[in-house]
# Entry
Amino acid sequence: MDLSFLPAVNAALNASATWLLLVGRRRILRGDRDGHRRAMLAAFGVSSVFLALYITHKVSRNFENTTFHVEGLAKSAYLAFLASHVLLATTIPFIAITLITLALRGRTERHRRIARWAWPIWIYVSVTGVMIYFLLYHLNPVPLS
# Structure
């Protein structure tokens, strides 16, 4: 089965998560807890679908990586960028589940303390996920043979 469309779907899911995270933050800053809860749960849902489809795509390709065809400093910069994205992305499911659990249990102050540093990580991962998609699938130079 051809699943080559999944990277584009995943980029759209990451972009959607980014938008929902921004909406959720704006809502809580305006004191709209219900709107914040809806936006953040939607961001978690969209991110969960992303993760399931990302794993599906990786498994379908036997965990093969897509190479970014650049050399020298550009390659080093890309790999550092990718490493920061991947490292932080591995924390998001745990952080998000912790935040949701705290919020649903009414532990608002602890939720707030963790969210102050967790939200920037989640937004960074969502935005850089879209950027990596564009680098690999739209801006990736053709390798010289």
